[in-house]
Structures are given as C-alpha cells and as structure tokens.
Amino acid sequence: MQALHFGAGNIGRGFIGKLLSDANVHVTFADVNQQVIDEIAKRHEYPVNVVGEQSTTEIVKNVDAINSTSTQVSDYIAKVDLVTTAVGPQILARIAASVAKGIIARHQQGNTKPLNIIACENMVRGTSHFKQEIFKALPEDLHHWVNSHIGFVDSAVDRIVPPATSKTGDILEVTVETFSEWIVDQTQFIGPIPQIQGMEPVDNLMAFIERKLFTLNTGHAITAYLGFYNNIGTIRDAILDERIRLIVRGAMEESGLVLIKRYQFDEQKHMAYIEKILSRFENPYLHDDTARVGRQPLRKLGAGDRLIKPLLGTFEYQVKNTNLLIGIAAALNYRNNEDEQAVELEKMIKDKGIKPAFCQISGIEINNPIVKQIEQIYTAMQTHQFV
Fold first, then answer.
1. Which of 3, 20, 38, 361 gives a 20 to 30 Å CA spacing to 320?
2. What is the pLDDT of residues 329-364, one digit of tens each?
3. Rounded distance, CA 300 to CA 221, Å?
4. pTM surpassing 0.90?
C-alpha cells in the first residue's frame, strides 16, 4: 500500500507518518521544506522519541519525500492508495489545487482503484472542508467520477507533538508523547477500510471529534492563555499552578456536561478522560510553550472551535459556563507581538471595543448576557485585578 502525506513537520513525521509506516505502508512526504525533503529522500528513515514513563526511540522506515510544489505530486496522486495531511487547517486550501490536478491525472490514466483522502488536522470535519476546496479546482463533469472513486474521510486526531530540538542536531528527529488517537469516519471510505493499527474506524465520529475538541483542545488552549497571562512559559508549569488547574479542570467539566447530555457519554468515564488529559499536560518529558499553544487566537475564538463551540453547547443544554468564560477572556487578553492573529485581535479590540470585537469573532449576539460577563472578566484581567 502506498500513501502520499502532505506535511513533513513534527506531527506529520511523529504521528501520521509513523503510524502508516508501522503498518507497512510506503509513505512519501510532500512538503516545501527542501532541507527536510532532501534528508528524508536520502535516508528513507528517521528517529522518533516516544516519551513518557517508558521512553523509547523508534526508527521510522520505508519513507520517501518530494517537494509539494513539484509536478511529482500529480504523479503520486494518480497512483497511491491513500492521501493524508498534517499541514494546519489554513494550508488545506493552498494544496487543494495540487490535489485536484493529481485527481484529474488519475482519471485520465484510467485508475479506478479506490483512493481515500484523510485530512488529519485540528479542525471539525477537516476533510469535508478540504473536499470543498478540491472540488472548486475540478471540472464539474468530473464530480460524479470523483464521488464514485475517491473517499473523503473525516477524522479526529490527538497526540501532543511539541517542537523539540534534537540533541544530536538531526533535523528529522522528532519527540512525541506516548498517547495517540486517530479516529476516522468508517462510513466515508470508498472500498475496503485500510488495516492500520492506531487508526480506529467509528460510525459516530462527531461524538469523538467533539470529545477531543471540548476536552484536550479546550483545556490546552485555556492552560496556554492563563499561563501566558501569568508569565508562565510552559504548559507543564502552567497546569501545575493550582489556580490555573482549577479553572482548566472546571472548563473541561463544563464542556463535559455538554458532551454527556449530547452523546450520552458515561459520566464517570468522561471524568476519568479529563484526568487523563490533565496528566498529559503535565508530562515532564514534553516541553511545550504557552506562546505556541496559544497562537492563532482568532481561529480558536471562532464559532466552531475549541472555546466558543462548547460555550454554545452550555446555552443549548443550560449548564454552567463560569470557567469557560474565564478561558475566553484570557484568550482575548493574549498579547503576543510574534503572532499575527494576536496583533490583529489587539487592534480589533482597540478599534471596536471588547464587546463588538468579541461578537464579530465568535458570532455570538451582542445582547447575549454572557458578552457582558466576558467584558467584565476581560477588563479585570486588563487592569490586573484578576489572578
């Protein structure tokens, strides 16, 4: 089996690429980083440090690489069995035209073997979004053929892969946590579902997407924003601060009540899942900066993302949201001159005022009572009256 994977960064190499290679899939990475591409193409392997109580270094083999801007991309898409991505949600639209060209080439070559495409991104229904972008670049008369021969499979991915500097200077070396979860929508595959250990097909993907989004992503972001606000550099140090931990756990419990009511999750099991997430944040072997995890606050404050989506759920099911509101106010206070979205957020608040800016970003109506509450918490944080 052959796969083309877009994104040879830490997540691409340390998570998806590794799982595929471990399942004896030949993986070709496509990326714009020529130095990384050349090194993978030369060595056909790289080391992954899996860190936890039992830390190991595993060698990922059977890999190759090409530049994602080259014409080779079309050649690969015309023949491979699987296309995956780990490029970041904002890059999907940029690579869609290249994928479309490859699909056209596949059709022209008469390749009717099933091809499945899986966007492994931190976004809800990322592959469905990717499909829309790809279809924009496809001739309309090809749409029916594509729907018959190509599966667009939504997924939920979960593994903490922080930036890590190799002690040996190896640019391919990557560090990951022991835990990983890759859940895919089994109803969206065309042809047989590939047997890949670590990839779990389910028929109720949305429940797992929201479980991860409302727990790991919500908790991670709030830890980052409260940590950054308190001048704490790492996620581990932030979550070990008892004041921050209390708010983060409280926010995950609030979003958890939404999940329990929406998907009938077992309450005890979900609370255990929350504790597991908290323990992952304090993994002493992972060094993840609060600044990095907090980046792109405008995206994270969007209606379908990790802070506002669970908040909307608390309206729907009439459950408390005190800690979620604190987390949202902390995100609005994220001031990082090295992050474009943080700079834009600050300017929006300065130009429009906190309430109109928040409502524009989140899509929440300005007359909603929680907008006033967020303004009060935000202002208290601005004047350092909030710990």
1. 361
2. 999 999 999 999 999 999 999 999 999 999 999 999
3. 8
4. no
